[in-house]
Amino acid sequence: MALNILVAVKRVPAPGAKIVLTEDAQRIDTKHLGFTVSPHEECAVEEAVQLTGQHGGESTVLTLGPEVAEEQLRTAISMGINHGVLVATDDEEWDAIATAAALTDAITTLEAERGAFDLILFGNESADAGNYQVGVRVAHALDRPVVSGIKDIEVTGDGVTMKRAVDDGFEVMQLPLPAVAAVKEGINLPRYPAMRGRLIAKKAQIRHITPEQRQGGLSRVRLRHPQQDQTETQILGTGAEAAPAVARIFEEVGLL
Amino acid sequence: MTTVLTYVERDGDTLAKPSRETLTFARSLAEAHGWGLDAALVGDPTEGSLADLRAQGVATVHALVHDHLDDDAAPAAVAEALVQLHTQLGPGVLVGPGTDHGAEVMAHVGARTDLPLAANCTTAAPADGGGWDLTRVRWGGVLLEDAHLEADVALLTAAPHQTAAQSAGAPGAAELSTFKPELDDALHVTRVKERATRGGGISLATAPVVISGGRGVGSAEGFGILEELAELLGGAVGCSRVATNNGWRSHNDQVGQTGTRVAPDLYVACGISGATQHWVGCMSSKKILAINTDAEAPMVTRADYAVLGDLHELLPALVEEVKARRGVG
Ligand SMILES: Cc1cc2nc3c(=O)[nH]c(=O)nc-3n(C[C@H](O)[C@H](O)[C@H](O)COP(=O)(O)OP(=O)(O)OC[C@H]3O[C@@H](n4cnc5c(N)ncnc54)[C@H](O)[C@@H]3O)c2cc1C
To answer: What are the C-alpha distances in Å from A148 to residues A180, A213, B106?
Structure first.
């Protein structure tokens, strides 16, 4: 069965060893930062490409974000996704209810034009906001079954088998299609886009949808850094000669 | 009276640690305002979990009982049961643990009630002008966000590892009450059909010591010596995302924001720089030892102990040293 798959992604900054906040404490200072697709969602993109490669069909990537989030849509297209759709907002972050409502509207519009998506993939949680709920809200609004924490997807006939990673192994669920899943990093190893893919992505038409903003109810007051205990690092040595000192630490914490 | 209803999970015979943390979080909210503290869990509680619930000061324990509410229950079904119970108890707070399962269940509660849900909170209190003031973690714990939740009912999850589980000053009655929800058949579509256990080995999340490797390890084979040390010490091997992305280790071993959060007695970071997204996965460790050639690496400056050198030189010597001590001891 040829599959019609939608993947929802979010553009997030990629901070390194330290996060700097803007003066008004409303956001991360991104002057010196690059942006990326949240890691779980990058894997969702890879999964969509692999599934349509296996079963035939086509895939669409959808994001809610500022105009510049086209960059992340093009990254997904360079990996093998067929279509890109931007639900364009101002540069403010929308909360989970507002995001889910706008994504649901966009999906309804797209499905009216091109038919229902068999599978809609989300990341388990976005790297920055970590709300853990947008996929579930969208699935509920569309009245489709949804599972989170997914690390394996196999489409079989008119159904799909999904595995959820738990501490000591996997839980296996069997869903009818159409279905929704929130996936986690580890479900696959995302490819590095090839030159051909990047050329296609550069020329790809991005569809724009203008959303209505619903008031969600969760609003930011300020961001801040958690209090960090200042630890004085005790240097135990510079090479093999430090082994006895390290072994003494093992003893101190009760490992030896 | 307003009730703070807390969804809790069992771990074998007792309450899971994140659920005890969540109860402590919920109790501080309840105590500050003279509210009641109730708990809800799937199926009949065991003696051990009842003891934990009493210790946490819980007044009433609501056992959610239904043919399809068991260990394999669909999160949507658990959520619907919680919504029905919560509606019966009257407006207040509904809080769950910020674990994968807790987050999934509470997301369904949010979707079914169409109410806002604040994930991974560290504090919450009613706001002066109505609604709720709260603090939640972002970026997996690198940042805090002070936020306002505009709703009569507060739906929250409590951030794991942020509130230490503490017993109440006075134990609660933990009086058992059975709640039988009405659940539509469609809710059970996402039930767990089957389980596959990984089996064997010490789990990364609960190991007393984690020997973790990053780019500095250099190859899949390079992890052999980390394996050997971990086995000698009764620990598990972890890794950074660079090691996963290079195909050196399985993602199951990845520590960090998009991997596993660990909190061992000792975390040994070999050739890992300490990017924020890795740090949040290991920062709850009791002690951290960094082995790194770069004295300026954030992992080194934040660690309790460091060896400023090549891990390929230190680790073989360390394995010999541990073996020798084992031989003598
Ligand atoms: C949204 C998001 C989520 C992420 N989630 C995670 C996550 O869950 N987990 C994670 O780990 N990363 C995560 N990352 C990636 C993270 O930002 C870093 O890129 C990654 O942790 C770096 O891995 P590393 O420390 O092994 O490599 P590097 O940063 O390259 O550091 C290598 C270190 O090894 C040292 N070294 C080199 N050779 C030796 C030697 N012979 N002996 C001793 N030391 C040596 C170097 O001095 C250096 O400090 C995430 C990134 C993003 C944007």
So the answer is: 9, 26, 12
Q: How confident is the model at residue B312 (pLDDT cuts 50, 70, 90)?
A: very high
Strands B209-213 and B192-197: unpaired
Q: Ligand 1 atom 14: the closest Cα is on which residue?
A: B277
Q: Return the domain boundaries, chain A.
A: 3-209
Please judge whether B307 and A235 are an interchain contact, meaning their C-beta atoms are less than 8 angstroms apart.
Answer: yes
Are A138 and A87 in contact, with CB atoms under 8 Å apart?
no
Give the chain A residue whose CA is nearest to the CA of B285.
A253
Pair (B319, B175) in one structural domain: no
ipTM: 0.96
Q: Which domain holds residue B245?
A: 209-326
Ligand 1 atom nearest the C-alpha of B257 is 8
pLDDT in tens, B148-189: 999 999 999 999 988 999 999 999 999 999 999 999 999 999
Q: Is the CB of B242 under 6 A from ligand 1?
A: yes
- In the predicted structure, residue B77 carries a pLDDT above the cut 60: yes
Minimal Cα–Cα distance from A16 to chain B, Å?
5
Count each helix (H run) and each strand (E run) in chain B, helices first. 9, 17
State in Å: Cα A16 to ligand 1 middle: 9
Backbone angles phi, psi at A38, to 5 degrees: -50, 135
CA-closest residue to ligand 1 atom 18: B275
CATH architecture of A3-209: 3-Layer(aba) Sandwich (3.40)
Which residue from A minimizes the CA distance to B265? A253
Cα–chain-centroid distance for residue A113?
25
- The verdict on a CB contact (< 8 Å) between B321 and A243 is yes
Write the single-letter amino acid at B23.
L
Read off the tokens for B328.
């003598």
Burial bucket for residue A21 (CB in 10 Å: 0-12, 13-18, 19+): middle
> Is B250 within a domain?
yes
User: How many folded domains does chain B comprise?
Assistant: 2
